[in-house]
Amino acid sequence: MFRSELEQVWRRVEDQQRQIDLLKRTQQDLVDENAALRDALERDNLVGTRISSQLHRRRFAKILRRCPISPATSMVPVVQMPGLAMAIVRFAGVPAMGRVGVVARSARDVATPVLLDLSTSFLRPRIYVIGGSQNNQALDVVERFDPENNRWSTLAPIPTPRSDLAAASVGGKVYAIGGYDGRTLSVVELFDPTREVWETLPPMPTPRSDFVATAEAGRVYRLGGLDEYYEALDTVERFDPETKTWEVLAPMRIARWSFAVAAISGKLYAIGGFADGQALNVVERFVPASNRWEVLAPMPTSRSAFAMATVGCRAYAIGGSCPGLGRALSVVECYDPETNSWAARAPMPTPRSRFAAAAVGGRIYAFGGFDDTGTEALSVVERYDPDVDMWEVLTPMPTRRSGAACASS
């Protein structure tokens, strides 16, 4: 009797073991299929951050149940430090902070306002005023102006102090090119506003100062200027930020320096300047698609050392200097490419030359420069609204200077 009962129990154990073995094989098959499915989804970028974070939490909880720990301190206060969130953004990028906020619940409260603040800041263009000179001393000063709040902030200095340089913005980064520090320079340096750091790029093939630069279709164009022998240049070159290389294009018809450039509807307009001992009123238009120049209607006021800014499809020539008219002008003239004509506008309140200007949000901002004596550097900032043809005075620059460059980003 005992033996038969024992055999029945043994058969039941064997049946149970066979079922357990079957379940194990089925489980392993499911694990293998799940792994294959996950690999396929990851290759097709179909596994989102939230799914990955949930899997991570489940695995971590399982391990924690097996090997419980009792940390002496919590990481929550550390993760919630705003400074840490900003550091992650600067050195790993905005998407990295977004992933941290998804994966770590304790980081969400601090990540959310940081990301909102950054997104608002990135949507609001700022103007960067770079270098220049004061009392014949080249400056390394970089100051950022927020047009919306009428406020200034001082940033990391440019590695190479200089004046009479040019600046342009491509892809949210600012290029500072050439200039003068007692020598004519070929240096090119790149500023990243997100991380607030400078990077040195390959130099220009030819040193130059008192030239112009502008951005168009993701490329940087530089035109004219003075070489290291103080000879006027007619050369035009284009920089490709992707390959970090320069390309030589068709030269301007007139070699000149201390002039201005405007980019309108994919074309470049080189205007005014100085050559052969006189201020110019000549206007040339460059068409990158055909690599050709053509002469247009001259500017009414001959001048050099002036600034130019574009609002919509019109360019505004502002201030400058001209022998016989004065060392500092307040004249403002508007060029319309559609009619190839010029029209006078309200004069700038402060006559000046060798200043910087940029357009943001449909308005033009003028920074610093020389006064009418030609010796005193200014800190004055004025804004022009083309819609109402009026100027207003804003918060001055922290550093007075002339010969600076500026770009918006």
Q: Tags for this entry?
A:
409 residues; alpha+beta; Neuraminidase; 2 domains; four-stranded antiparallel sheet; 25% helix; 32% strand; elongated
* CATH fold-level name of the largest domain: Neuraminidase
Name of the CATH superfamily of the largest domain: Kelch-type beta propeller
Q: How many strands, what sense, and barrel or not for the largest sheet?
A: 4 strands, antiparallel
Number of helices: 6
> Would you count the extended β strands for me?
28
What's the CATH class label of the largest domain?
A: Mainly Beta
| Beta-strand content bin | 25-35%
End-to-end Cα distance, whole Å, is 94 Å
Helix content: 25-40%
Can you characterise this structure?
It is built from six helices and 28 strands. The model has no long low-confidence stretch (mean pLDDT 86). The chain folds into two domains: 75-122, no CATH class; 124-408, Kelch-type beta propeller (Neuraminidase, 6 Propeller), CATH 2.120.10.80. The N and C termini lie far apart (94 Å). Strand 22 (332-336) and strand 23 (341-345) form a beta hairpin. It has 409 residues and is α+β, with helices and mostly antiparallel strands. It has helices at 2-43, 49-66, 76-79, 82-92, 94-103, 105-123, and strands at 127-130, 133-134, 137-138, 142-146, 151-154, 166-170, 173-180, 184-192, 197-201, 212-216, 219-223, 236-240, 245-249, 260-264, 267-271, 274-275, 278-279, 283-287, 292-295, 307-311, 314-318, 332-336, 341-345, 356-360, 363-367, 381-385, 390-393, 405-408.
